[in-house]
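Supplementary material to the annual report.
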Amino acid sequence: QQKVQQSPESLTVSEGAMASLNCTFSDGTSNNFRWYRQHSAKGLEVLVSIFSDGEKEEGRFTAHLNRANLHVSLHIREPQPSDSAVYLCAVSMNSNNRIFFGDGTQLVVKP
Amino acid sequence: GPKVLQIPSHQIIDMGQMVTLNCDPVSNHLYFYWYKQILGQQMEFLVNFYNGKVMEKSKLFKDQFSVERPDGSYFTLKIQPTALEDSAVYFCASSYRDWGGEQYFGPGTRLTVL
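Predicted assembly:
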């Protein structure tokens, strides 16, 4: 069964400083990788999806995928206090849309 | 972006009772999902549903669970009877296509079984 692990568990950054979140997965045949954001009492908001090795940018959010290293990361440029939330790494296969989630990283952005 | 709604937001019931969780998916979506998140734990896949049928279910989808979407209305998750370990937040999601389609999530229903 796919295992998805995120680090760090929690991260505090100052407003404007880059925030970097990491995610490792166990199944190297995975093809779909997403980062979601979850504000308390709200649904998940998809931030960026990436399907091939390299980099994908969506606004201030950039995902880096290295499938050989079983690693996908999220970098948040110029984070703001409103970016404070739990960030979830999500991994799935192309032919099977069942998503495996990581435990999440709690991000706090201080003004 | 597209919105998935879930009703109710909170539900408290006694163990052994039946509960139905309702999901109003994005209007043109064809694939529907339920995920379960116990407090402090990972979100985990329960089931996905397409064209009136369960396509895949996980070990968490016990015999007491059932899903349906009668006549294109709400996509529902029914638990009958409920058990204490069913207490969790249940998230509904929908997508337009199965192959790599983006899943849009609702805000969740917090279920407390006493």
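The interface with chain B takes residues 4, 31-32, 36, 41-46, 49, 51, 88, 94-104 of chain A (CB under 8 Å).
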